[in-house]
Design brief:
59 strands; 16% helix; single chain; 15 helices; alpha+beta; 5-stranded antiparallel sheet
């Protein structure tokens, strides 16, 4: 029996000569063919067999002919359509160019003038089609072809033809119309009536991506994207790219309004606004300027007032998940009754906003609030005069009350009975009664990664930047080491208090406190919690839920997004809490590391890198200043990328989703050394740019971390968590510099290989030291008062840099005849993100620092959802 391509070729042999496949999309396979009658190249598009089987030939051909009459310079015309041996096909001109998607994949962002021109010309095509009664329904970069720079909109009306021909039977195909990133909210929620304003939303989304490098809403899955389209407000364009004119920013904002009625009345009006420098959101009928805010209030009321309907609509519209509606338990068509869900904003006093970092160790964001298990009381780290303390606010009261003796506190957590609050301050864990009193010291803790208080009277917690999982009686006493190894963060006790959830490099773990058995769950995420038969965890700023059997410690259902737009810190801890009765409180926001990379000059001048805004981590600039190696993630994993800082071409170095961080560059700037934490490739590797196989550089080991090497690549600085050493390549020798009980890390070898800088917490505060190599046992403190870490040498070895909170310092260093250090001097101070690994780098000439902008943040507002578990149950219910 001939294969499908042979059948198609034979069936069309008298009309088209098929040359080769050009590509595949969600609905069709595209072939390059020759139109034998007219002797021209054409694009022959053949619908997927499973789709054709549902549609039927007559109805499809009838519907598609309605678009054949469209004649516009920016619309790709329809040449032909029909059936052949069971295949449904349509024919369009072959454009010898590229799609807008290919151009964006190559360039990430376009010039402002070019992006606006393309958007206006596409809008002109849309306006023409709309006036002729045709709505595209699938505007996306893949459907915009560029011929000599001129956009041509392809597949005009195809989505409408398929939908109409299906006659409501699209669920039988297992396919979905539209691309999630560019769907309008009404498409995402499967509304039956789609108007021309849906296309306006889509072209606004495409323009947003052309200007910023990303669509308005991104996520690790189609479900997550659709939830964000329905619930979130995109970041204003000018926050991402300052060079965008205000009128363009305002026009994009209006095109992306949630309610169709709040968008432009026509594509023509959208195009005119893009070309009118005087246009602002204030030009629209009584709309206030700065309309991005938190979305239209009318849409908020609609969504909140009909949350059950919206949740069902989202489930129906999920990409590739289209299914018939399920029946209620009675067997009738009526849906089962759902518990009432209510949403309110909790407004904190402007004078005492919530501090997400405050005095938290090293400036890393920690959990900023907790709620008692009975849902009656909120405790949070508030900021007054730049200093944090704990404040208690019962939910039946408006006024927070400060807890005495909690200055500098962060990471609060409640006792099971709600009478005590545990917290961290400096290098201690303490507890204090909720009604006041003198705080009590529980344990010494260095840079904790969270804690949970069990009903058995014990507190499970982590220290040393999540290195160890520990347990102690809430009354103090000896500390039990449960697990000593990398990454045991954000412990959360399961019911019965016999097992604890925690996050590690390789996923979410369940640790049995009695047997010490450790199990890795088959989900990817961070900051795991449990509630009402579900495992919760976050990926980026979205919380997911999966049904979970606590007795078997087994995930029993797929993970689905249940909460979007939650502030998440750089170590994956997400700012939300839920009680046993399903009362949810969360801080509205996004992942703090999802901000622009910016060069900051010594004169304060800012130069944002023209790269798409993504979730980013540790960074390393090459010695010649040309390349940037940086950890980039989606929430499901992280990989290492290298960006050319001259032409901003990018190369993906890893594909495992478990890259640890870039560690250092070769002296010729052609090889990058990185850490991979995946089970299959765990170890430290060196990778040449431009392809080529990676070679193993250091032995694998969970506790071994390489940080730097000397200019001649002979010496490698290594940290073990509680000790530092230097490996001599080729000699097979490891020279221990210092071993302490307290953490030492961040080894930086001077370019000449004669000195080692590192961070130590042995004295209580984090400080930076320099020591000769080989070690003489004598060292010099080079940092000033306050925390200090991430030491870096200048290229000439005459200066040492380090980070302290939101400041970057420079110290002049002389190594001849003896080691001497000058006074630390601030070279940059500002709001930048402290990521795991290296949070900054310095240009080779020492004149600029590179940081991820933003990240400290504080807010006077939280959001509360009552009855959230009922909503979660609906979203995770088996189909």
């Amino acid at each position: 029996m001939p294969n499908p391509l042979e059948r198609l070729t034979t069936a069309l042999a008298d009309r088209y000569l098929i040359e080769r496949e050009l590509g595949q999309g969600g609905m069709a396979t595209v072939y390059l063919a020759e139109d034998l009658k007219h002797r021209r190249k054409v694009a022959l598009k053949v619908l997927k067999p499973e789709l054709a089987a549902v549609l039927g030939a007559e109805r499809f051909v009838q519907e598609i002919t309605t678009t054949a009459a469209l004649q516009h310079p920016h619309i790709l015309p329809l040449f032909d359509s029909g059936t052949a041996d069971g295949f449904l096909f349509y024919v369009m001109p072959f454009i010898d160019g590229e799609t807008l998607r290919a151009k964006l994949d190559r360039e990430t962002q376009l010039g402002v003038d070019e992006a606006v021109r393309i958007a206006r010309e596409v809008a002109d095509a849309l306006d023409y089609a709309h006036r002729h009664g045709v709505i595209h329904r699938d505007i996306k970069p893949e459907n915009i072809l560029l011929h000599d720079g001129r956009p041509m909109v392809a597949d005009f009306g195809i989505a409408l033809a398929v939908s109409a021909a299906a006659g409501g039977r699209m669920t039988e195909t297992g396919l979905s119309l539209g691309t999630p990133h560019y769907m309008s909210p009404e498409q995402a929620t499967a509304e039956k009536q789609i108007t021309a304003r849906s296309d306006i939303y889509s072209i606004g989304s495409v323009l947003y991506e052309m200007l910023t490098g990303n669509p308005p809403h991104v996520g690790s899955s189609a479900q997550q994207i659709i939830m964000r389209i329905v619930t979130d407000t995109p970041r204003p364009v000018r926050e991402v790219r300052k060079s965008v004119p205000p009128n363009v920013d305002a026009a994009v904002a209006r095109s992306l309004e949630k309610l169709p009625a709040d968008r432009f009345e026509s594509a023509k009006a959208f195009a005119e606004a893009l070309g009118n420098p005087a246009y602002t959101t204030a030009n629209t009928a009584g709309r206030p300027a700065g309309a991005w805010g938190n979305g239209t209030q009318s849409f908020k009321r609609l969504f909140i007032g009909a949350s059950a309907l919206a949740a069902a609509a989202i489930a129906i519209a999920l990409w590739g998940w289209l299914r018939p509606a399920s029946r209620g338990q009675s067997g009738s068509d009526a849906p089962a009754a759902a518990p009432l869900v209510s949403r309110v904003d909790l407004v904190l006093p402007d004078s005492i906003p919530m501090a997400f970092i405050g005095a938290a160790s090293l400036g890393n964001g920690r959990r900023a609030f907790a709620i008692s298990r009975d849902g009656s009381t909120l405790v949070y780290a508030g900021s007054v005069g730049g200093r944090s303390a704990l404040y208690v606010r019962p939910f039946d009261s408006y006024d927070p009350v400060r807890l005495p003796g909690t200055e500098g506190a962060y990471g609060p957590f409640f006792s099971p009975d709600g009478n005590w609050v545990g917290f961290f301050v400096g290098n201690e864990m303490r507890k204090v009664r909720i009604n006041g009193g003198t705080p009590v010291r529980v344990a010494e803790v260095t840079n904790s990664g969270g804690a949970d208080w069990g009903a058995d009277g014990h507190i499970v917690f982590t220290d040393d930047e999540c290195t160890r999982l520990l347990r102690i009686s809430a009354d103090g006493g000896p500390v039990e080491v449960l697990r000593d190894g990398p990454a045991a963060c954000w412990p959360s006790l399961l019911p019965g208090w016999r097992s604890v959830l925690y996050s590690a490099f390789d996923g979410i773990h369940v640790f049995d406190l009695a047997t010490k058995r450790d199990t890795v769950l088959p989900v990817t995420g961070y900051d795991a919690r449990y509630g009402a038969g579900h495992l919760f965890f976050n990926r980026g700023s979205t919380v997911f839920a999966a049904r979970f059997d606590t007795m078997a410690r087994r995930v029993t259902g797929p993970a689905v997004p249940v909460l979007a737009g939650v502030r998440t810190e750089v170590y994956g801890n997400s700012q939300w809490a839920v009680t046993e009765d399903g009362t949810l409180v969360y801080a509205v926001g996004r992942a703090v590391a999802e901000n622009p990379l910016v060069w900051i000059g010594r004169d304060g001048a800012r130069q944002p890198l023209p790269l798409a805004v993504r979730l980013r981590g540790s960074m390393e600039v090459s010695p010649d200043g040309r390349y940037l190696a940086v950890l980039e993630g989606t929430g499901e994993g992280s990989d290492l990328w290298v960006h050319d800082l001259r032409d901003f071409r990018s190369e993906r170095i890893t594909t495992t989703g478990a890259a640890g961080s870039p560690l250092f560059w070769s002296s010729d700037s052609r090889r990058v050394v990185y850490r991979d934490e995946s089970l299959e490739h765990r170890g430290t590797w060196v990778k040449p740019l431009g392809g080529g196989a990676a070679e193993r550089l250091l032995p694998a080991g969970d506790s071994v971390r390489a940080y730097s090497w000397s200019a001649d690549e002979r010496l490698i600085g290594v940290g073990t968590g509680r000790g530092i050493s230097v490996d001599e390549r080729g000699a097979g020798r490891r020279s221990m510099i210092r071993a302490e009980r307290a953490a030492l890390w961040g080894t930086a070898i001077s370019p000449d290989g004669r000195f080692v800088a590192y961070t130590s917490a042995e004295s209580g505060d984090y400080q930076t030291f320099v020591e000769p190599f080989p070690s003489t046992g004598v060292r010099r403190l080079v940092s000033g008062a306050g925390g200090a870490e991430e030491p870096r040498w200048s290229r000439d070895g005459r200066r040492l840099y380090y980070r302290s909170g939101q400041r970057i310092y420079e110290v002049s260093v002389s190594t001849a005849p003896d080691l001497t250090a000058g006074e630390p001097r601030v070279v940059y101070e500002g709001d930048f993100v402290n990521v795991g690994g290296r949070s900054y780098d310095v240009s080779p000439d020492g004149q600029r620092v590179l940081v991820i902008e933003g990240g400290v943040g504080r807010t006077p507002r939280l959001r509360m959802v009552r009855g959230w578990f009922g909503e979660v149950a609906r979203l995770t219910r088996a189909p």
